[in-house]
Amino acid sequence: MAKLTFSKEYRLLTPKQFNFVFEKPQRASTTYITILGRINILSHPRLGLIISKKSIRRAHERNRIKRLTREYFRLNQYFLPAMDFVVIVRKRAQELNNQKLTYILEQLWRHHC
Question: Which phi and psi (to 5°) does residue 89 adopt?
Answer without folding.
Answer: -105, 135
